[in-house]
Design a protein that fits this description.
Helices cover 30% and strands 21% of the residues. By secondary structure, it is α/β, with parallel strands linked by helices. The strands form 7 sheets. Strands 2, 3, 7, 8, 9, 10 and 19 form a 7-stranded mixed sheet that branches. It has a 6-stranded mixed sheet with strand order 1-26-25-12-18-20, covered by helices on one side. It has a 4-stranded antiparallel sheet with strand order 13-17-16-15, with helices on one face.
């Protein structure tokens, strides 16, 4: 590994290394704090409780809020008679474009069927085939039908329902409408809990509490809201990424943001969470077409409309740039109204809500920010480089997703990592430690700057990027105002988004190649010397320091440096 200097180091401001934290007025003690209540967080909490650990779940919204309920496709697992683990491994490695950690991928594939089986034992109502086994479908990049689904296109909602019910049945403590502000650290840099606050009227922070714990598990999801339009819900603001960075953890592959090729286009200037049209629609035979009716993906890749997501999104983006069009179309008419209503009821309903008819007309679609392939550097057990801090699910970078996530590997990874993390903490839970007084910063990012941050990130760090635009993004981020007002939810989220955008700009400019979902139009080739992770940390002054880490191939122990 080696130290590298990001290309925007002289332009990017110091990342906020310490927040203006409100003082705690209460203290509570538990064994493990799980921050986030998506699939990974819920599964971790359930498994920890079953192991006899006292668990407290902290969630910014209601229990189960987050990206998981919006997931339409399902979970990838080798269950079909014509499938085998090696095919799933190779499909994942191909999609990951040389940046997958192969030992982690092999562990994921081996343990995925067990995770699906556990969901069924917990009561998940999966869609079944005629023989009573889970029905399987195919998505982009997969060589076999291996996507388990529920409710047609409501897989994430069923996973959430199942795990939330299991959590409630076990009496696990849950703090809803509560945000994790910062990690509590000991004098030697170990995590000893989190400072939390309830979310009051207008986003005010109330009931500030030091929640002391023997371990903190981050399961906070991604940061899709750093872009103007995204498939992610409003809470996906990168809070866990920023918290981990301030706590001393390293973040990796932040530049690798997957754009889903088919978000429903709802008009020029659309912002916030956009309706998703699952890749499974193309898996069932729908095709992407231009305004004149010609197929966008024909000849662009051997798998055509079922090429990996990075290829499809980049092809669409290049077409839009060349033609000046706002969107392309997804044509599913030949699948028939009865089939579409039965297989994709939620998508058909979303189309009707937008005044569109999936069964009788091509529907307008466009790529939108969807999934963070990078995140807090962790192994598949959730271990980070900071003792006592664990990260699972989308907030983590385990190397499973590489430079481009294979469709429907995300919930699978979250469940596998959650089970492994819980098993680890069942036997290796650190002792309770006394936290030092948190460092208190002077200023967060002014919430009024949020629109500036997201607009600049969208313009310069979208599907297609170049050095000139990324440098301009860094300049824009350097110029945003700090706020001396008391910290509230808006300032906390804007600070997190600014942190993520700063790392994204630095990493995307440093990686002078095109690989997976990172596409530089000024360096369009993939370069062998960049088959490395870009890993970032903060120094004590709050400046970024970046190193490269080789990608592991073949079998090997899962270890975080």
């Amino acid at each position: 590994m080696s130290e590298v200097r990001p290309g925007v180091a002289t332009l990017a401001p110091p990342v906020v290394a310490a927040l203006p934290l409100p003082a705690a007025t209460d203290e509570r003690v538990t064994d493990v704090v799980v921050v986030g209540s998506g699939a990974a967080g819920l599964m971790a909490a359930v498994a920890l409780a079953e192991a006899g650990r006292a668990v407290t779940v902290v969630t910014k919204g209601e229990l189960g809020a987050g990206s998981t309920p919006w997931a339409q496709g399902g979970l990838a697992a080798v269950l079909g008679e014509d499938d085998d683990a090696e095919l799933h491994v190779q499909d994942t490695l191909v999609a990951g474009a040389g940046l997958c950690d192969e030992p982690a991928v092999r562990t994921l594939v081996a343990e995925a069927p067990g995770a699906v089986a556990e969901l069924r034992l917990l009561g998940a109502r999966l869609d079944l085939a005629a023989d009573g086994r889970p029905a399987l479908t195919r998505e982009g990049g997969h060589s076999r039908d291996r996507i388990v689904h529920a409710g047609g296109d409501a897989s994430g909602a069923e996973v959430t329902r199942t795990l939330a019910a299991a959590l409630r049945a076990r009496g696990i403590a849950v703090l809803e409408q509560t945000v994790a502000l910062d990690a509590l650290l000991t004098t030697d840099g170990r995590v000893a809990g989190v400072r939390t606050a309830g979310i009051g009227d207008g986003g005010a922070l109330v009931d500030v509490t030091d929640l002391r714990a023997r371990a903190v598990v981050l399961a906070t999801g991604g940061a899709g809201q750093v872009f103007t339009a995204t498939t992610n819900p409003a809470g996906a603001t990168g809070d866990g990424l920023a918290l981990a960075l301030r706590a001393g953890a390293e973040l990796a592959d932040v530049e690798l943001v997957q754009f889903h090729p088919t978000a429903l286009w709802t008009g020029a200037g659309a912002s916030g969470q956009q309706p998703l049209v699952s890749e499974a629609v193309r898996g069932e035979g729908a095709v992407l077409v231009a305004t004149d009716g010609h197929r966008i993906m024909a000849g662009a890749h051997p798998l055509a409309d079922l090429a990996p997501r990075d290829v499809v999104s980049a092809t669409i983006a290049a077409h839009l740039r060349a033609t000046g069009a706002d969107h392309v179309f997804l044509d599913a008419r030949h699948l028939g109204a009865e089939f579409l209503e039965r297989r994709f009821p939620g998508i058909a309903r979303a189309c009707r809500d937008a005044g569109l008819d999936l069964a009788h007309e091509p529907i307008p679609v466009v790529p939108a920010a969807h999934y963070s392939c990078g995140g807090v550097l962790a192994d598949l057990d959730g271990r980070t480089g900071v003792p006592g801090l664990f990260a699972i699910g989308e907030v983590a970078c385990t190397g499973v997703q590489g430079a481009n996530r294979l469709a429907s590997n995300s919930i699978t990874e979250g469940l596998v990592a959650a089970r492994r993390c819980a098993a680890l903490l069942a036997v290796e839970l650190p002792p309770l430690a006394a936290p030092a007084a948190p460092r208190r910063g002077d200023a967060a990012i002014d919430p009024a700057a949020r629109a500036v941050v997201t607009a600049a990130t969208t313009r310069h760090a979208g599907v297609l990027r170049d050095a000139e635009g990324l440098t301009e993004l860094a300049r824009t981020l350097a110029a945003v105002d700090r706020s001396t007002a008391p910290l509230d939810l808006a300032a906390l989220e804007t600070t997190a988004l600014h942190t993520v955008a700063t790392l994204l700009a630095a990493a995307a400019l440093t990686r002078a190649e095109s690989r997976g979902c990172h596409r530089r139009v000024d360096t369009p080739e993939t370069r062998a010397e960049w088959q490395v992770r870009l890993v970032h940390r903060l120094d004590r002054a709050g400046h970024l320091r970046t190193r490269t880490v080789p990608v592991r191939t073949g079998a090997g122990e899962l270890v975080v440096a």
